[in-house]
Predict the structure.
Amino acid sequence: MSYNGLLSHYQSLLDLPSHTRPVSLLEGNTPLIKADNLSRHLGGGFELFIKYEGLNPTGSFKDRGMTAAVSEALGRGATTVICASTGNTAASAAAYAARAGLKSIVLIPQGKVAVGKLAGAVAYGAQVIQIDGSFDDALSMVVQITDKHPICLVNSINPYRIEGQKTAAFEICDVLGNAPDWLCLPVGNAGNITAYWAGFKQYHEIKSTGLPQILGVQAAGAAPLVLGHPVEKPETVATAIRIGKPARGEQALQAAEESKGRIIAVSDDEILSMQKLLATLEGIWVEPASATGLAGLTHEIESGKLKMSGKRVVAVCTGHGMKDPEIITKDMAKPIIVQPKLEVLEDVILG
Ligand SMILES: *Cc1c(COP(=O)(O)O)cnc(C)c1O
């Protein structure tokens, strides 16, 4: 059966207005990869799967929400979309707007956007504006401007973003046959955790697929939901979740509570070691933010707070490693240079 993108695949389950005109890049339908090496490394005895969202068309899960938001905007007659972004939303909005023939404007916090994301937004033809401030400042600006002008906001406060993003939960249940015991994922502006929980609840109502416990994970330097108050100057190497005032923070806390899960924080070191571990043990390279859910899982297992024995766990890896190559190349040892002679090469390889 041919796959025509997630709006078409899950049409009957998505609450989108009838004026919606589908704009798709065949997003979604991403692989759920069993990660036995990593599971063994963490003590074993449980099943671990990676929902590899970096394989979406623009390299992050944002495409799930963007196909819905841009399709609705186009059908409504919008001509311009705008978003604030730490990078991935910008690239995604720009790509879907391009395909729909709409203009896109993206506001990014100055100097804190990974090169692969900025390059995407530029390549897809967005008007890119840097704000001399944080992501939270940029979000406040786009809310104000869309209140005043007929420009469509496509951040995850747009409800159609959540409709599109909940399809990831449907896909997981479709592959596994039911919901996993635990789902772990990074939490930034908290749209994705909100969408997953909505998706699992909806699927459970119609298909009795059960509900996972949700482990939401923030970076320690940007952990408003763990601290219980906004963070004025969020700092973390995981730039995609460098957010101090999550727009859907209340819903994230509710998802954690209703699912009998929790929201925790991990250090940048834990995030970077997990990024490396996942790449070297499983061949899955994700950007730092995307390793945060797994870093949190590891933290809970190693500190004895979670027993995973016999459980089935899904870790959502939200974006591709190629989005942020500098995080790897900036400290790497330069590859050695040898003369193009067999004896020299043998010497280097065989010692
Ligand atoms: C947007 C993003 C997140 C955070 O998702 P929220 O919905 O803002 O919580 C995590 N990882 C990556 C790679 C992202 O692009």
